[in-house]
Amino acid sequence: MSKTKPAPLPPDTLIGGYRIVRLLAAGGFGLVYLALDAQGREVAIKEYLPAALATRAPGELLPQVAPEKQALYRLGLRSFFEEGRALAQIAHPAVVGVLNFFRENDTVYMVMDYLQGASLQDFIVTARGRQRKKILREATIRSLFDEVLRGLRIVHQHKMLHLDIKPANIFITDDNRAVLIDFGAAREVLNTEGTFVRPMYTPGFAAPEMYRRTGGAGLGPWTDIYAIGACIYSCMQGYPPHDAPQRQEKDRLVTALARLRGLYSNELIDVVEWCMALDPLSRPQSVFALQRELAREAAAEPEPTPSGWWERLRARLGLAQAQAPDAASHQSQRSSFLEPP
Ligand SMILES: Nc1ncnc2c1ncn2[C@@H]1O[C@H](COP(=O)(O)OP(=O)(O)O)[C@@H](O)[C@H]1O
Ligand SMILES: [Mg+2]
Question: Count of domains in the chain?
């Protein structure tokens, strides 16, 4: 395992006709850049470069992969490419748009719509800091997951699973869309000793079947639905739930949810419990089933969904100021951000 992270491509590097502006984020599996296309339009480009398998010296274009890691590197690369191909077929406001994907520099690049905003995780962390009783309001949670589920349903219709749904991978754009990012197909094959292995699951959001080393068997829409339940839980509680192995040992979910009763409707709390059933068969089996249940309850819900709820939430959380400096500079160019709803 290499100790140093692969160096990002420097600003002004040209790849596939796109010009790199700067690095946006560096994760374990790749690097995300802001770039400009030939028309000068901003795009986000994700470069496949798993830190565990490849290195790159500063100023170099090509990753270095040790001979014994070549096979795995190639496997991940193909999978990343397939992820791009599959995502490119989906056009939905709640799923990050893939504009292009191509091979270059011995790796693969996925060109996406450039999203400006903050992750749901940022919102939760900010809200947590306020130390109020409620992290997010129920109407906000319902509107948010209504959008996310519409996107997820399309993803499942395309025979894909996300497998890493968590607040950090739900992006809230400045124009008030909830967008699923970071589709983890590439992760499916990485970090293995030659065999098919589970993704780098995020504790708290990964369903119990994700921990079983049985290839893809047992995974299905219900696996993403478990993660959705855990995300809703986090929006109410401010923290992720205990991870699945802990729950299998001693399950405190019902106790934790009981503390939320009174603050949130019993219906929403029951939906979380349903989604997070340890037994996959006891969960909603499809996004449609879950949507139907949430819609049924929403009809009974006395509190109407406010319009402009994200603006109000942002304003209340002071997220305009709390943004990372680079994100804030984009926002300052946008007039919509804190306009009164
Ligand atoms: N399309 C995009 N537009 C803007 N920023 C993005 C986009 N995709 C990813 N990012 C940024 O890069 C970070 C990492 O991307 P992600 O796809 O989640 O990969 P990973 O978590 O595997 O490193 C995100 O949290 C987000 O900040
Ligand atoms: Mg991510």
Answer: 2
Q: What is the span of the domain harbouring residue 267?
A: 117-337
Own/partner long-range contacts of 209-214 (Cβ < 8 Å, ≥24 apart):
209/280, 210/163, 210/244, 211/244, 211/245
Q: Mind listing the pLDDT tens digit for each residue in 41-71?
A: 999 999 999 988 999 999 999 999 999 999 9
* Residue 112, ligand 1, Cβ within 6 A: yes
Residue 1 in any domain: the answer is no
Is the predicted pLDDT of residue 131 greater than 80, yes or no? no
Amino acid at 68: E
Q: Which of 80, 181, 190, 201 to mutate to test ligand 1, by most ligand atoms within 8 A of the CB atom?
A: 181
Q: Does residue 9 lie in a domain region?
A: no
Which of 119, 115, 22, 25 shows the shortest CA–CA distance to 319? 119
| 181 Cα–ligand 2 center, Å | 7
Q: Does 164 share its domain with 49?
A: no
Q: Quick check: 37 pLDDT over 60? A: yes
pTM: 0.86
Asked whether the beta carbons of 221 and 287 are under 8 A apart, the reply is: yes
One-letter amino acid of 95: V
CATH code of the domain in which 27 resides? 3.30.200.20
Please say which residue of 96, 113, 130 terminates a domain. Answer: 113
Specify the 3-state DSSP secondary structure of 116. Answer: coil
Which amino acid is located at 277 in the chain? A
| Contact present, 107 and 43 (Cβ < 8 Å) | no
